[in-house]
Amino acid sequence: MIIMKLEGGLGNQLFQYALGRALSSALSTELTLDTSYYKTSPNRAYELDNFNIAARVADDDEIQRFLSPVSKIMDRFRNSYARLIIREQEEFVFDERIRALKDGHYVVGYWQNERYFKSIERTLKKELNLTQPLSKLAGTWSEKIKTVKSCSLHVRRGDYVTNKKIQRTHGNLPTAYYQKATELISKKRPGVEFFVFSDDIAWVKENLRLNVPLNFISDTEIKNTEALVLMSRCNDTIIANSTFSWWAAWLNENPLKTVIAPRQWFADASKDTSDLLPEAWVKI
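^ Glycosyl transferase family 11, sequence as received from the core. Prediction below:
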């Protein structure tokens, strides 16, 4: 059994699931998920149960096999390759210990690197479909997306704006990024319509002044998971510095898609995120 510790929003959960699924597949073992983080995080919710994932939620006894005080003390005395609790050492950088991992580990981290799960790409894209039909409003937008040349555009605000610590870390993409991105897509795909997704759609309507056709999708009636699926169904994708829209772009099945992503992912330009963005994506 592999237990993956889940934390963060939907984008983070998908990265954590993807690594866990790759490990369970390689080791022919069961994948279970520690969702205890969401019991004490009122602003976040466990959302993977909206998809056809091949995992179940771990029970308390299974988790305590690794996290009881005695178990954690014993684990500290093992060398890094023998420990049963595997913690990510450096964000975005592939951790070579994963290659040697055996069954029976508790895995903690964000694991935001495609190399961890590229080998099971087809499996993930099959499993990460919704268990339930789209809501009426989401279904209406899905039909429109199918009938036009479409590009999703994601604006991430939320705690990037309201939480000063997070804002200093992530920063906010300037309007100039979206201006250049929409110009590039419009040049490649004349007549394209842009479908805008945001956690602050009112701000976007007021402040995102772009001389292109815009459809504002986000609505309280459309769940996060539905928004992710709608974004992935567009021909092309303009992502924010957000794992949520990263996954919408990655799940996009269009073989001719153009994905535009911000070259600078964090406010701190010294952070190396070169392994976060797939090579084929356009960075600006």
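The mean pLDDT is 91.
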